[in-house]
Amino acid sequence: MQPHRIKKRAILGGTFDPIHWGHLGIAYAALAQAGLNQIIWVTDRHKRDPHQQSRIKFEHRQAMVRLAIAPEPAFCLGSPPPEDPKAGYAIVTGQTLQQHYPNSQWYWIIGADAFSTLPKWYRAAELVEAFEWLVAPRSPAQPQINSPAETPFGMEVFPFNLQEKWPQFNSTLGTNSTNDLDNKALIKTQEICQQVAIAFKTRQIHLRWQILPTQPLPIASTLLRRHWNDAPTIRTWVPEPVQIYIQTHHLYQNPQHPLPPDSSSIPRL
């Protein structure tokens, strides 16, 4: 009997409120760079940041992720976590999936800002040693916006080019060149990763990490929630099936704390 071939699997977790092209772009970059066989999307049942709360139930967020990832065979939706908040800890999620998928080499896909908090995570030492970390670059500071036409709400995102596995978008946002933005994001992300690695090294823990070659998109779930009604172009930031789901179920209709129409504040992904 031949032994089972070890597969490369990664976990990509988040509240996905809602899922958008930025999340998908990160996932495709991870597929290509690490040669992954599968990415397991895990939707957080409980939102831990009180400033990011919304009224959208877990079941809706889970359904939107299912629709968004359906076209890609390498994407898989993780099983719903139990109601117990403790089950949402990363170490519990990771160990549960490792038991479910034996004979796997494991990765964790994460944004640079979240990665910077890794030393403070529950049972961080066990988690760090069990995964290799694929870090999505942090978006650079947003440039000065001089007119309403230059707000992020005027940016239109188009579906993935299936050959390039990356969304196309049009935007007048900012004046810096793409290379300049890429370099700033890369430098900042490298600094974050090195600081986290040093923090674990002082505890005799070896951290394996690599930065994903992605261009951070200036889009965020926070803006989608707040401006779904008043900025129609923003709806192109999510795949069409997700657009239809949001409209059908009347989600994001009454934002609690809307930003002004010409706001230049772009929250992190």
Automatic annotation (TrEMBL):
- InterPro entries recorded: Cyt_trans-like, NadD/NMNAT, Rossmann-like_a/b/a_fold
Q: Does the keyword Cytoplasm apply?
A: no
Xref: CDD domains: NMNAT
Query: So, what pathway does this thing act in?
Result: Cofactor biosynthesis; NAD(+) biosynthesis; deamido-NAD(+) from nicotinate D-ribonucleotide: step 1/1
User: Keywords, A to Z?
Assistant: ATP-binding, NAD, Nucleotide-binding, Nucleotidyltransferase, Pyridine nucleotide biosynthesis, Transferase
Q: Which residues form the Cytidyltransferase-like domain?
A: 11-173
Reactions mediated catalytically: nicotinate beta-D-ribonucleotide + ATP + H(+) = deamido-NAD(+) + diphosphate
- Which Enzyme Commission number(s) are on file for it? 2.7.7.18
GO MF annotation list:
nucleotidyltransferase activity
User: What is this protein for, i.e. what is its function?
Assistant: Catalyzes the reversible adenylation of nicotinate mononucleotide (NaMN) to nicotinic acid adenine dinucleotide (NaAD).
Output the NCBIfam families linked to this UniProt entry.
cyt_tran_rel, nicotinate (nicotinamide) nucleotide adenylyltransferase
Q: Which family does it belong to?
A: Belongs to the NadD family.
Q: What is this protein called?
A: Probable nicotinate-nucleotide adenylyltransferase
Q: Which organism is it from?
A: Laspinema palackyanum D2a
| Gene that produces this protein | nadD
